[in-house]
Structure formats: structure tokens, C-alpha cells
Amino acid sequence: MKIDDSQLYALFAGLLDGEGRVEVRPKNPQADAYSVQIGLEVHDNHRGDSPDAVLHVAVTIDHPLLPKLKLRIPIPLEGEKAGIGAALEDLTKFSERGHFPQHLPMLVVGGAGNPARQSQQVMIPAKFEIIQIPYRMLSD
Length: 140
Fold this sequence. Notes:
Blueprint: H1 5-16, E1 18-24, E2 34-44, E3 53-62, E4 69-77, H2 84-97, H3 136-139
Antiparallel strand pairs: 1-2, 2-3, 3-4
């Protein structure tokens, strides 16, 4: 069964959009607990781009001794009747176009004076585990 792109977006947004927070207790019993927040948001992308939708996974590590460390990772979602082989073309477009870059922190300890921030875009390798599930698993 073929699911159209708008239905795919609505289905995943209904299943996945949300957020939560967890308290992390370090292995060192003298260290303070800290929180990690996670948010999931599905972006409808099917009009003129690939993949059909993108799941944005946002993670914020909020430790009392560190600046907030924020990550944002895009996960491509593709509705492809022909299966994984045909979806690989959309994955290639997704990676080459770079419309949804990963946002990863890098913490530097050192230097003199006040804290500083800088942003740098670099190309990093990514390994995708491509998982195919039948539409009926989501529609029941």
C-alpha cells in the first residue's frame, strides 16, 4: 500500500512530536545530578525536496558546571513504495543538499579570560542504518 507524502508527515507527527526530561545521576556519588531534555519534531519536507519528512531530534544537556550543550540531529523519513533501493536516491539528495545539518557541540576547556563561542560548519561522516517497515505496522 502506498501512503502519500502528506499522510506520512501527519502520521509521524502524530506518533513522534513531543518532549521530555530525564534526571541523570553521575556514577561519581559526589557529583551533582543534572538533566537532559529531548524534543522530537517532524518537519514536512515533501514539496520539492528529499526526503519526504525529517524527524528533528533535539537534545539539551543541562549540567550545573557546564554551559548548556545542545544537539540537533535530523533523521530522514521516506515513504517509498519500491522500498529501500529507491529510498537510497532520496538519502543521497538529503546528504548532498545539506538543508538539514547536524548541530553538535564541542566543549573546549582552557584558554584565558571569559567564555567564548564560535560556530564552524564541517563535513563529518555519518553511517545510516536504513530500516524498512510496512505501512500496515503504523496504520493499525
